[in-house]
Design a protein that fits this description.
The chain folds into two domains: 153 residues, 3-Layer(aba) Sandwich (Rossmann fold); 137 residues, Tumour Suppressor Smad4 (Sandwich). The radius of gyration is 20 Å and the shape is elongated. The longest helix is centred in the first third of the chain and has 14 residues. Helix content is 19%, strand content 40%. The protein has a six-stranded antiparallel β-sheet with strand order 9-8-19-16-11-12, covered by helices on one side. It has a six-stranded antiparallel β-sheet with strand order 15-14-13-10-17-18, with no helix packed on it. By secondary structure, it is an alpha+beta fold.
Length: 306
């Protein structure tokens, strides 16, 4: 449920309150990330907030987030840091606010250059929560169910080290949908529709949607169209291959699959709440801007791609 006041959309499923305790996590290998995090931390302390700053890999700080010691998590880095931060704070229902220090930063709301002018909106209540759907994935190997994995972007079932396609079968609520002979099959959230699925030629889903997108990767004489499923869909992706196949959740280390193994995918019971200062139409403006600056999508005045 959303409450609308001008452009101020507040998701009523998440308590709307001003933060008092803020965790600031930075990627230690991105130049300037920790420095900007310290500057923002000092600014927040001057405004009367309690803060703790550290590396995204700091286990003590991560544990404090898990036990809900904070009511806001700020992430400093690129989109990879945002994903790690989202995995950390979403299970505890802690909102996420990103400051882009990396190269791309499509998920982040702020930059190292504009946080000074934008953060005061946090104290005036001029912000909203954007609720982003997540999915859960569970590998089934030799009939044995493995642990659940959370995904903000996507779950990818793909060929392993052999440069050969694999056969992938997709089942919806136990019934066969279709089979692919391809390099792999992506199951993506709307957030993930602008990641690997977009690179594979898939459609762009607005972040507020709650759908699961299935997108084949380099299909060979197979269905090459994306399939968009409802939030309540239960998907099982099964591999049939004489050689190695793998599954990766949000780009993490691959899990090896044998023929007959698969992964079960469902909508996650949790959502990732992201703090937004911009109006709800920012998504399309940002996407267009990124594509225009990407050589693949840039078009010169004479109609030739750059």
């Amino acid at each position: 449920m959303l409450f609308k006041s001008g452009y101020n959309y507040v998701d009523m499923n998440h308590p709307f309150k001003l933060p008092k305790n803020v965790a600031l996590v930075a990627h230690p290998n991105i130049p300037g990330a920790m420095q900007v995090a310290e500057e923002v931390s000092q600014y927040l302390r001057n405004e009367g907030l309690d803060t703790e700053t550290g590396s995204i890999h700091d286990e003590n700080l991560r544990e404090a987030v898990r036990v809900k010691s904070f009511d806001l998590l700020m992430s400093f880095g690129g989109d990879g840091t945002m994903l790690r931060s989202g995995h950390l704070c979403a299970p505890s229902d802690i909102p996420l606010l990103g400051v882009n220090i990396g190269h791309f930063g499509f998920l982040a709301e702020l930059t190292r250059d504009n946080w000074h002018e934008m953060l005061p909106k946090l104290f005036s209540g001029d912000y909203r929560y954007e609720q982003r759907m997540m999915i859960s994935a569970q590998c089934i190997k030799d009939g044995v169910e493995g642990p659940l994995h959370d995904a903000i972007n996507d779950v990818v079932v793909a060929r392993g080290s052999y440069v050969r396609p694999i056969e992938v079968e997709a089942l919806l609520n136990g019934a066969h949908i279709t089979s692919y002979v391809a390099d792999g099959l992506i199951a993506a959230t709307p957030t993930g529709s602008t990641a690997y699925a977009l690179a594979a030629g898939g459609p762009i889903l607005p972040p507020e949607l709650r759908n699961i997108l299935l997108m084949p990767v380099a299909p060979h004489l197979s269905v090459d169209r994306a399939v968009v499923l409802s939030e309540g869909a239960s998907v099982f992706i099964r591999v049939k291959t004489a050689h190695e196949a793998v599954v990766s959740v949000d780009g993490q280390d691959p899990i090896h699959l044998s023929s007959g193994d698969g992964v079960k995918i469902n909508a996650h019971k949790k959502s990732l709440f992201m703090v937004r200062f911009s109006d709800p139409y920012y998504f399309y403006r940002n996407l267009t801007s990124y594509m225009e600056h990407n050589p693949i999508f840039s078009i010169k005045s004479n109609g030739q791609s750059t």
